[in-house]
Design a protein that fits this description.
Strand order of the largest sheet: 2-1-4-5
Number of helices: 18
Largest sheet: 4 strands, mixed
Number of strands: 10
Distance between the termini: 45 Å
Structural class: alpha+beta
Radius of gyration: 26 Å
């Protein structure tokens, strides 16, 4: 990759950020003018005219930042079967030719590889995995386009935007409900990423991107199709999830409805294709829902009636959270029941008790839990339900104690291991005497030996 990058003409400017992610820093409207450098995109300059933006995306510094980002994501190979390192070697010899094709408008992206991801409810989500090369090119484009387009989006849009997160959307929702808007118009779009109309999307992009070369390349990506069991399926709609550009394109399309909601003065929060509008009455909510059906219908999008509703905002799931009213009429956040169920299902999967494990393997189980627990706790950090956190901690340690007992298997081993861990003879004898009652036995005297501090020493994160 370094050899390929050296073959590109460099421009003076600031080096890319460590992760090569587009728009990490806040970008003002002034950054959209000519000769301004992008935040976090190397020397890519926001110039206007045919091919100028594409040339900015293909500068050495911008491509290096994009490559770092793609490599850090550690994604799977596309239809060409080339992983990160194999693509690296390919670019060392083929990049000059690829770059020339991109600038000449003759580059043809490869179809994306269809992957079906199981969802907790038993259904499947379709992902389209572009080749590593196409992810690199898309990321480079994103780093040029996002600082230019993102500042024009609605302030009520929080998904896939620099400096914004699901937490911002949940906080906004809590604020609206606290102000007295207790009815929510909860809108979920049916198979949104699969139903994005290419012609409508391209028409909206033309209003924002003053570069025909970039528009032509984006159209080529939309038309690349999907490879399914070795057969290329042509598509005239959809922007498959899995490519770096898809979230930005989705926000461009949905921003039109956001702006219409703003113009009417509605309080709302949107994250990707999940939008919640907060109103003061059921009747007002029904009017908003009917109006949204028309607005989304104009974009050839359809509301998922099974998942959408006009109802009380309290207890309604939004991005894994739900709202409740505490003492003093303060509106607070809690983890939704479905999110709790998904958490326990995932923990059961990661801590299956089938088969024996040595002590070292049990430690490995704990180590394997750490990334998931830390990520889950970070995402649900807004939840104001300390009792729930404590119950989850207790349940998790209970489960790990049961795993340890089953690993020791027979009463003699249980007695010996507990004595080695500092248990009293009475405790070791009583626990060993019920060696086959894994779950019940792990919630009694065993807690005096495999204590909270014991799991702390193993490196198990606490949720509470």
């Amino acid at each position: 990759m370094s050899k390929a990058m050296r073959q590109m003409p460099g421009q003076p400017g600031r080096a890319g950020v460590a992760h090569g992610e587009a728009g990490r820093d806040p970008v003002s409207d002034e950054a959209c003018g000519p000769s301004q450098e992008h935040q976090g995109t190397g020397s890519a300059k926001q110039t206007v005219g045919t091919g100028a933006l594409l040339e900015a995306a293909l500068t050495r510094e911008n491509l290096w930042a994009a490559w770092k980002r793609v490599k850090a994501n550690k994604g799977a190979a596309g239809v060409d079967g080339l992983d990160i390192e194999q693509t690296h070697r390919l670019l060392q010899t083929k990049w000059p030719q690829i770059r020339q094709e991109l600038l000449a408008g003759t580059y043809r992206p490869m179809p994306v590889r269809r992957v079906m991801i199981p969802k907790p409810d038993g259904s499947q989500r379709e992902l389209g995995i572009p080749s590593v090369l196409d992810r690199l090119i898309q990321q480079a484009l994103l780093q040029v386009l996002q600082p230019m387009i993102d500042p024009t989006f609605s302030e009520h849009s929080h998904g896939f935007r620099p400096g914004r997160s699901a937490h911002d959307a949940v906080k906004a929702a809590r604020g609206y409900v606290q102000s007295g808007k207790r009815v929510v118009v909860d809108v979920d779009l049916a198979k949104f990423f699969d139903r994005v109309n290419h012609d409508i999307l391209m028409e909206r992009l033309k209003r924002r991107i003053p570069d025909t070369a970039v528009l032509r390349l984006i159209r080529a990506y939309l038309n690349a199709g999907i490879m399914d069991d070795g057969v290329k399926v042509e598509r005239d709609q959809g922007t498959p999830q899995g490519g770096p550009l898809s979230p930005l394109l989705a926000n461009v399309l949905l921003d039109e409805v956001d702006k219409a909601l703003e113009a009417r003065g509605y309080c709302f929060a949107r994250y990707a294709d999940d939008a919640n509008v907060y109103v003061g009455s059921q009747r007002a909510g029904e009017r908003v829902m009917a109006w949204l059906r028309t607005r989304y219908g104009n974009l050839k999008l359809q509301i998922n009636e099974a998942k959408s509703a006009v109802c009380s905002a309290l207890g309604r799931k939004f991005l894994g959270y739900e709202l409740w009213v505490a003492k003093g009429r303060e509106v607070k956040c809690a983890m939704a029941n479905k999110a709790l169920g998904n958490f326990k299902a995932r923990i059961r999967q990661l801590t299956g008790r089938s088969g024996g494990r040595s002590m070292a393997q049990v430690v490995q189980v704990v180590q394997g839990l750490r990334p998931y627990l830390r990520g889950w706790k970070a995402y649900f950090g807004l939840a104001q339900t300390p009792k729930v956190w404590r119950k989850l901690d207790k349940w998790l340690r209970h489960r790990l104690r049961a795993i340890q007992l089953k690993q020791w298997r027979n009463s003699q081993t249980i007695y010996r291991e507990l004595i080695a861990l500092g248990a009293t003879e009475t405790a070791a004898t009583r626990v060993a005497g019920s060696s086959r009652c894994w779950w019940r036995n792990s919630d009694g005297l065993l807690k005096t030996v495999l204590t909270i501090s014991y799991f702390d020493r193993l490196g198990l994160p606490r949720l509470s």
